[in-house]
Amino acid sequence: MDEVRRTLLEGRTGLLAVGAVRPCLTRLLPFVVVDEDEAEIEVFSVFLRDLVLTDMSPLTVRSYGNDLLRWWRVLQLIGVTWDQAGRADVEVMVGWMRSAVNPQRRDGTGGAVNPRTGKRALSSGYAPATINHALAVLSSFYAFHARFGRGPVINPVPESVGRRAKLAHRSPLEEMPRVRRAALRQKTPVLAPRSISDELVDELVGVLRTSRDRALVTLYLSTGARASELLGVRGDQVDWAGQRVWVISKGSRALEPVPASPEAFRYLAAYFHEHGTPGADEVIWRTLHGKSRPLNYHAARRILQRANDVLGTDWTLHDLRHTTITRMVSDPNLTVPEVMAVTRHRRVSSMSPYLRPRIDEVFEKVQEHFAAPRPERSLTPGYDADDFSAVFGG
C-alpha cells in the first residue's frame, strides 16, 4: 500500500475511472455521486443536499460532486474509508493533482507563450486554483459531518486560523489582507485579463464556419456574458426591438438584460433563418448535426478551438468576456459604474484588473518612443549663443 501511495503522490498512476456524477432531475438533488455499481454514495448526498437547501446553484452542486468523486477514487486506491481519512491521505490527493496529467489539458505545452496572443499556455497538470477548490470542498464536507458527530475527530484538511480571523469582519470595500496560506494550499498566480485586439477579432469571426458560430461569438464579444449564461438563453429571452438578450446571472441567478451589438443580431437572424426560430421555452443554441440538442459548454469551446487551430491562437471563451470589458473601460463615454452595470460586477475592486494598461498597447507606445527622432537641443529664447559658449564651452 505504501507503494500505491507513492505512485499516486508522484502522479505515476491514474485514478480508477469508477463512479460518476449523475444528473438527478426528479429529486431535490440536481446531481448525485454514484459508485462503480451506480449506487448513490449517501454520505456525499447528505452534504450536497445541505448545499441545495442553502440555495447553492445546480452548477455548484455538480462542481462539488466532481471534487468529492475525485476524493472517493483516491480513497478507493489507498484503501481508506472516508471517516478514517487523515492529513496524510489528503497529501496523497494533492500530490497526485500536482503531478498527474489533467485530461482537459493533454495538449499543455508547459508554459510556452503563444506568439500571436501573448498568452502563456496552460501546463498539463491541474491548476493551483483547482487544487485549492478541491481542498475547500473537502474541508467543508468534513466540517459539515463533524457538526453531527460523524467522520474523523480532526478535519483532515488543514485550515489557516489566522486567515479566518482576519477575514471574519472585513468590509467588502477593503483590500484583501495578506495572510499566510494554510498548509497544502497552492500559490495562485495573479494573471492580467487578456483581451483580443480588433484586428484579431475580425480574423476570428472571419474563420468561423456557420452563422450560428458567428452569432454566438459576436454575442459573447458584445454582451460580455459568461459562457454558461449565454448558452442558457431561450427564445423568449431575445429582445429584438431592444437589441438585448436576457441571461440568468451566474452569481445572483437573477434574470437580467444585457445589450448586444447590431452585428450580433444580424448573425443571430441569419442563424434562425437557416435553422428555424426556436420556441419561447427552447434554448436558442442547438447542435447542427445529428439529432438537435442544446449546445453545451464543451461544444461551444470546441467552436473556438477550431478557429484557434486555423489562426494559431489560443483564445478561450472567457477571453471574449475580457475583451468586452476592456473595450468598455477604454471608452471615455462609459463610466466604471456603467460598465459594472452591464457586466454585472458587484464590487469596484473586481474591475481593477481591467483598469490597468493593456500590455500590447504599452509595447506599441514604447516602440513608437524608440522610433521617434531625438529632439534637437536649442537654447531658451533670450539667451545669446556666444555668451552660453563662453560660460559653458562648446
What is the gist of this entry?
This protein is mainly alpha-helical and 394 residues long. It has helices spanning 2-9, 42-53, 58-78, 87-99, 128-146, 161-167, 198-207, 211-223, 227-231, 262-275, 297-311, 317-330, 336-343, 352-355, 359-371, 385-392, and strands at residues 20-23, 31-34, 238-239, 244-248, 255-259.
How would you describe what is shown here?
This protein is mainly alpha-helical. It has 2 domains: 2-165, no CATH class; 198-355, Orthogonal Bundle (hpI Integrase, Chain A). 47% of the residues lie in helices and 5% in strands. The chain has 16 helices and 5 strands. Strands 3-4-5 form a 3-stranded antiparallel β-sheet, with no helix packed on it. It has a two-stranded antiparallel ribbon with strand order 1-2. The radius of gyration is 27 Å and the shape is globular.
